[in-house]
Amino acid sequence: MAIKIISNRCPQNHRCPLLHVCPVDAISQNGVGLPVIDETKCTECGKCVRYCAMGAMHLK
Ligand code: SF4
After folding, report:
1. What residue's CA is closest to ligand 1, atom 3?
2. Domain count of the chain?
3. Are 6 and 55 in contact (CB under 8 A)?
């Protein structure tokens, strides 16, 4: 999995806007908790990395 979420950069206090950014619906979130990426869906396109205002998504 090339995408990593850097948990200490994510404020975990709001619905993650990236849920609507991912073209393959690979990002989910329980409430306002840390988002989770489904590695069986993720195509490693890097779109979430570009859109995350907190810089919490990292593409290796
Ligand atoms: S890299 Fe692309 S496919 Fe994977 S979670 Fe981010 S936006 Fe979705």
Report:
1. 42
2. 1
3. yes
Reported in sequence order, the residue ranges of the chain that DSSP labels E, i.e. its strands, are: 3-5, 27-28, 36-37, 57-59
Closest atom, ligand 1, to C-alpha of 44:
1
CATH (domain of 51): 3.30.70.20
Residue identifier of the C-alpha nearest atom 7 of ligand 1 = 22
Q: What is the pLDDT of residues 5-30, one digit of tens each?
A: 999 999 999 999 999 999 999 999 99
Q: Which pLDDT score is estimated for 1?
A: 76
What residues make up the domain containing 28?
3-59
pTM of the model: 0.92
